[in-house]
Design goal:
InterPro entries: Lysozyme-like_dom_sf, Transglycosylase_SLT_dom_1. By secondary structure, this protein is mostly helical. Helices cover about 50% and strands about 5% of the residues.
Length: about 280
Amino acid sequence: MAGHRSPGGRRVTGDPAPHRVPTRHAARHATTPGRGAPRRTVASTTAAVGAAFGVLSTGAFAAVTSTGAGSAIADAAESSTVATQLAANSEALSVDPADVAITGAHLSPVAYSVAGVDRADATEAAADVAPDAELASLDKAGRIADEITEQQAKEAAEAAARAELDALVARGGLDGWIAQALEICDLPQDLAPGVKKVIMAESGGNPRAVNLWDSNARAGRPSQGLMQVIPSTFRAYVHPSLAGRAITDPVANITAGVRYMIANYGMDTLEAGGRSNGSGGYVGY
């Protein structure tokens, strides 16, 4: 118990005057320069650091700066309140606190991934899919290239055949007439040798040849032209596009004779160059 002196000089005992609690104004005034800054307790410092980590763990970002000795530190309770408000208004990110490195007043970038997807698994899956997709793309491109090459080769062959046929027809003569007749009848040009053999046996390649000695001649319907057809046969078998031409027209006559042989003896007989007897001799049709 502390004592104090009375106005008369006597020491008296008793409770001293009650200590007045400083007002907020006095507390603030106490922190002004020259009066000494209040010391922070371990508890208040720990609370401030904890609040800062609370901000980090919720995904919010706080700037940390150092102002050196003598700088004011925010009150622990107020820091905690601010951190709580920031956390409440921030959407949490998937951040592992272990990935966060704090060095002095600097924050290291945080690595995070999409929720539910492991980065290693996603990378491995992408690595597995990429080669398969690439191979499929290369295979498709290869097939397309082969098809284009095949089509180009086919077109080139057709163009070459067309040029050869045009040249043959332009030269005229027996080979040109045969080629033109087969084309009009939409028949393959490889039938040309057989057709030529029939023509040479029937007329010797003379488009104006007329048979005046066989039974048809005696009946008044002589065989005529390269394929030696009678008028009724010509009219029945000439290609429709050439129906207006004369029986001795080389191309029209060949179309009539070829179509007649195919209809009555078959394609094989035409390809073989006509019918033949047991000894291999030519037999007229």
